[in-house]
Amino acid sequence: MEIDPFIFRLSIFILSIFIGYYVVWSVTPSLHTPLMSVTNAISSVIIVGAIIAGLSGDLKSVFNTSSIFGFFAISLAAINIFGGFLVTQRMLAMYKKKKKDK
Amino acid sequence: MISENLSAIFYLISGVLFILALRGLSSPETSRQGNFFGILGMIIAITVTFLSIGNFSDGFIFVLIFLLIGGLIGAFIAYKIPMTAMPELVAGFHSLVGLAAVFVAISAFLNPEAFNLGTPGDIKLGSLIEMSIGAAVGAITFSGSIIAFLKLQGIMSGAPITFKGQHPLNALILTSIIVLTYLLCSSQSSNLFWILIAISFLIGFLIIIPIGGADMPVVISMLNSYSGWAAAGIGFTLENTALIITGALVGSSGAILSYIMCKGMNRSFFNVILGGFGSTEQSVNSSNKEQRPVKSGNAEDAAFLMKNASSVIIVPGYGMAVAQAQHALREMVDTLKKNDIKVSYAIHPVAGRMPGHMNVLLAEANVPYDEVFELEEINNDFANADVAFVIGANDVTNPVAKTDPQSPIYGMPVLDVEKCKSVLFVKRSLSPGYAGIDNDLFYKDNTLMLFADAKKMTEDITKNL
Predict the structure, then answer these.
(1) Residues of B numbered 269-328 whose beta carbons fall under 8 angstroms of chain A's beta carbons: which are they?
(2) Are residues B183 and B126 in contact, defined by beta-carbon separation less than 8 angstroms?
């Protein structure tokens, strides 16, 4: 009997939780706020689902109920992607300064 | 346009890039490179999605338009937002991820053919379970984050809102979510799907209203975690590796942050979630408090003490954020440094309203990050320091947490501020902090209270130095 592809996805999922666990513990506490904003941005990769939904309308009707939800989801996720990465960048740029030599 | 296998590999690459993005945050030097990896991963994921659908007809232009609208709004917010408003921003962003997850789940439910999940009314069982989980968790994230946002923004009172039968009601709703998911899977009825989403919105709202303002660091971290699980749920539905990896990363990241925050308050996660902290003890403590003598001083006294010190430790807290005093504080420290006084900063894990809140504010004020220390790193130094300058922090300095087993904050790790030769405590009044308990530190012989707005007091001290 063949293994259900779901099991493979589940394996990826479980292993990723462990990767996340070890990677996040190594994040320095002073960067916890940028950590939250960047996780926000990357979790908006959900936009791929929104794009599929948005493009699901056929030639006659670009807008059907399903694709309209898709379009809105695209905008919501895009706010997060741009906002999340840019605000993280802004914050991290402030951490640049090193101790000045006296 | 490109084969499914090829796009799956690209999704895997973008997942790996997201891992590297988080990995970069292990030190400030590598963090900006990490953020770049994150952006690259996102560009790959979006491009591959377009290429794999390969439909560049009418819908495509609308996708770009909506993408652009969202992107412009996001970029605008990112540039305009003041650093002090970071907790609200993050809460707001969480709500958007949650809502996006709900919308994608709805689209998939209404038009499963587009996602290869079957036909309406005959969606594959596994996919249906996955999209129900994605939609429910997404809805909880959305409404929970909205409440957190309103509380942080001050539109809604930070005080816990509790009512009789709250916990049984929540338990009932959670059970019905599970029952509804089961019924949905057997009947494929769209009505049940809508009800499921509606009550998930309701439970998200109900879970967060009883949690007080000072517990917001836990709440934000928890919602961060939820947004990840929602994304993972959708990732399973779409059979998309990038989403599954990201969801797992974000989910565990939020969970770890919640754990760290709970530990910083010496409270269990359930204790925080069940809520109502500080509402019961408060009345008892404030009523039987006798008036104790307090030494208070002005900016000149404070300046005199600091001028004669050789080392000063600054303890910032939420009050500093509220007063926007971080720039004034840094100017004061610059003046101290010119007088060859050693200055460092001590940050308690739960200072502020979100993890790392104080660090960002100090970084904004150009404080070098190697002068800023975590609790464990600096706690032993208080005994050797001359002056502790407490600005906007309160409960996290309360020695009661070490001495009085009756106290609600007993056992919470605190900064050993009282071991300093002298303590300067900037505060508006003697009122207790969020935990609702009196701070013993106010009445110590070596404590000088400076009653004023944090920003104004800091500026006055600088003038007197």
Answers:
(1) none
(2) no
